[in-house]
Amino acid sequence: MEAASIGTADASHDHGDHHGPPVAHHSSTVEAQTLGMLLFIVSEIMVFGGFFTAYFFIRVVNGNPWPAEGEELPQIIAGFNTAVLLSSSVTMHWALEAAKHGNRRGMKLGMLATLLLGSTFLTVQINEYVHLGFAPYDSAQASIFYGLTGLHGAHVFIGLTLLLFATIRVFKGHFTPDEHQGIEVPGIYWHFVDVMWVIVYLSVYIL
């Protein structure tokens, strides 16, 4: 009886024996790529925070006029550009939903539309700089204006680069309903860029 018990215990031990390193414990449902992007966005928010601190210091603490005297901001053009960028968030979401449902045509159209709208936003912003009539060195207000909008424009360019790579992969047939992080992660960054622009637009052009 004792020998049988020992044999059963040994068999149980052998069955549960694990060789090699322990299996990683996933304490979160967030994928590593998504978490990495979210942490990167947090760091970018801090960068924007530094520029907004200078902006509010000029307007609130010093009480300087915004924009500086003799300078004028194109609110209508900026409003049009805001609508363009917000529309690109809709098409980006459309592309992601198409990927989740295996709709390859929807993925292609959604990504191409997002690229087109994002490129339009950047083109309009560059054209705005050309016709503004003041330079970054003309005043402290001008420096902050170009700093904030230029920083955002750089993020739009980075986002478009990420979306371009994702679009190329879409046309190569890389994504499926189960594997679509290559669209989702750049999409998170793109939505961040859109939200940040709304804050910039309301603060700089409207308030």
TrEMBL record:
InterPro entries: Cyt_c/ubiquinol_Oxase_su3, Cyt_c_oxidase-like_su3, Cyt_c_oxidase_su3-like_sf, Cyt_c_oxidase_su3_a-hlx. The chain crosses the membrane at residues 35-58, 78-96, 108-124, 144-166, 187-206. Residues 1-26 are annotated as: Disordered. Its main location: membrane. Keywords: Cell membrane, Membrane, Translocase, Transmembrane, Transmembrane helix. The keyword DNA-binding does not apply. Residues 11-20 have a biased composition (Basic and acidic residues). GO terms for cellular component: plasma membrane. The keyword Transmembrane helix applies. Its EC number is 7.1.1.9. GO terms for biological process: aerobic electron transport chain. Pfam families: COX3. Gene3D superfamilies: Cytochrome c oxidase, subunit III, four-helix bundle. It is a multi-pass membrane protein. It is found in: Cell membrane. Residues 1-207 form the Heme-copper oxidase subunit III family profile domain. GO terms for molecular function: cytochrome-c oxidase activity. Belongs to the cytochrome c oxidase subunit 3 family. This is cytochrome-c oxidase. It comes from freshwater metagenome.
